[in-house]
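Take a minute with the sequence and fold tokens given here and flag any structure token that looks odd. Thanks in advance.
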Amino acid sequence: ALFDEERRYAGRLKLITRSGETAVLVSLDLDGLKTINDTYGHAEGDRALRELADALRRSFRETDVLGRMGGDEFVVLATVGGAQGLGRALGRLASELVERNAAGDLPWLLRVSVGWSRSMAGADENLAALMARADRNMYRRKRARGHARAASMPPPAPAAPARAIAPADSSRVA
């Protein structure tokens, strides 16, 4: 199935670049899927995946190619008409996620990390290279977001020394 997906993406990319349009590959990770699975069970993890897929369908156009690459990873191959078009599509996705989380019926928050790469109009782009650039962009943004969160959080309280925990309570030692 993955091979078929890659062929579908590669075929669409070829059509886009041959037509002179610019393709954008958006790479997304569903944040916290392991925690959702571990805390609420795999049925809720599956629900989180479906919720994200639905939000992606509502945020991008029918002509864009959406897919799950596996695990918590999704990709979208889109023609968005430049940086403003990409910004609008990602803005729609952000709004979808905010609205979905605000509904209050999910025991977890639906959050994603996003990266993208753009093909040059008329260029003979390689799908693997486009995906690699989008992934690098996503992980760079994820690290920066993590550093920003860490910088805005108060320093953690000092941990109690392990010897302060009574032997009968040793299961609490990390």
Q: What stands out?
A: The first strand starts at residue 23 and ends at 30. Helices lie at 2-18, 33-40, 42-59, 83-102, 127-152. The radius of gyration is 20 Å. Confidence is low (pLDDT under 50) at residues 149-174.
